[in-house]
Amino acid sequence: MPGPGNVGERVRNLRLTRRLSQAQLAGHDLSDSYISLIESGKRTPTPTVLRMLAERLGCTPEYLAEGVEPEQRAHLEVRERHAHLALLRGDPATAEAGFDEVIARSDDPDLTGRARLGRARALEELGRTDRAIELFEELREQAERDPGRGSWLPPVIALARSYHTVGDLGQAVALGERALERLERLGLHAGHEYTEAGRILLLAYVDRSDPVRAHELGRRLLHPVGSEDTEPLGVHYQRASMRALEEGAVGDSLYFADQALAARTDTTPVQAHARLALAGAKALLRGVEPFSAAARPGAVPSGEYGFERPRQEGTREAAREALALLQDATGLDDAESTECTIAKARALVLVGDLDEAIAALEQFLDTGMALSAPTSGRTMTPQPADELGVRTQKTVLARLVLARARVAQGNTNAAQVVLRAASEQLATLPEGRPAAHLYRELGELYELIESPESAATAYRQALEAAGLSVFNRVPLTAPH
């Protein structure tokens, strides 16, 4: 454990343990009054004095200065790296425990700062988004106060992602734009930070019904000008690091932990690109023009509320581009892989491949994939919905896309059956923006099958789910 308190308290505690008087500790080089000032916290010893006191007290200068012996510090460094590795392999609960241990035992501000950032990310992965936001905000404020100690970008990008998760689109957009502006000022237009900030901002623009900015950003991001061993290399490095630590070879353990972390991180750009490709496909299927083409003059302005304005389906050209992007969206986790399946089916409906879309969606629903438990240790559950609620949202969305395919087939009866099932499931979801979007699309589909009463009910429920009173708003104009 770290030594108690500050330098002075550690000096005093060790002096008393060694049964030395202040005069005996001072010796011929220092005065007992100077020792008294150090112990009371009124003087900070110089490095030379620290070495002198440490020699007389039988400890290391590092212990007096920071309360942690070098070997203990090394063990905490290893623990922090292993916690990061647990987070990367999709085990946020183990990661949180590791980061908590480092935070509790370390007096090193740099190590503690890294552990706090890791803990916030673990909480985000565990679905405790509100608590994660609090920690990310603290880290952002600290970085702004002391820019020389750490980067401001990681907590800001994480905050943009977290605010988007909880539906605070204003904050998500503001922070995402600040992050991209900073990266562009640095001339950095590649890498995980640029890709992740851009992905979050693209989705926030789409959710805020701002297709013009979404198209502009998507174009910059996606169409810029100009052996038999199947275990990842990082797993081998981590195993070697753990074994070295068990043998007491802390130096080797730290080295292999660094190598493992680097090997894991090397795969990040691939996954980041896949997540960006998925975000781009979803934007194209929400009415954003193809990123491969320049924006048309007189583009549709953003609406006040995304779910109130008639939802514009993507064009056939946009759907083809979305399908091409989804081919690159591989290696994602369970939740985003589900989104890929639904987005691909929606794109297939738009390009007219109805049989393929229906087959994929029916298999998805019939086999229970939508409501099955995640196969990994990761829980991708945004607050306030629980894990079942998130999976229910995906199931409802899959049913709505299936109903759209049935409508395109001209099979109104089949579409009605699917919509009835979707409506019943949708009623189990809590109010919020996700439910509002789903009710909005439900209303559009009831319009398509010429069921105006059901459509009106769905539009009213969309407003209520978004927290808007139907008595204080102008009635919705149904899409034509």
Write out key terms for the chains shown:
480 residues; mainly alpha; 434 Repressor (Amino-terminal Domain); Serine Threonine Protein Phosphatase 5, Tetratricopeptide repeat; 4 domains; 23 helices; elongated; disordered C terminus; TPR_rpt; DNA-binding transcription factor activity; Transcriptional regulator with XRE-family HTH domain; DNA binding; DNA-binding
Question: What does this entry look like structurally?
Answer:
This protein is an all-alpha fold and 480 residues long. The protein folds into four domains: 61 residues, Orthogonal Bundle (434 Repressor (Amino-terminal Domain)); 43 residues; 142 residues, Alpha Horseshoe (Serine Threonine Protein Phosphatase 5, Tetratricopeptide repeat); 91 residues, Serine Threonine Protein Phosphatase 5, Tetratricopeptide repeat (Alpha Horseshoe), CATH 1.25.40. The chain is built from 23 helices and no strands. The protein is elongated. The N and C termini lie far apart (69 Å). The C terminus is likely disordered. Keywords: DNA-binding. This is Transcriptional regulator with XRE-family HTH domain. Pfam families: HTH_3, TPR_16. GO terms for molecular function: DNA binding; DNA-binding transcription factor activity.
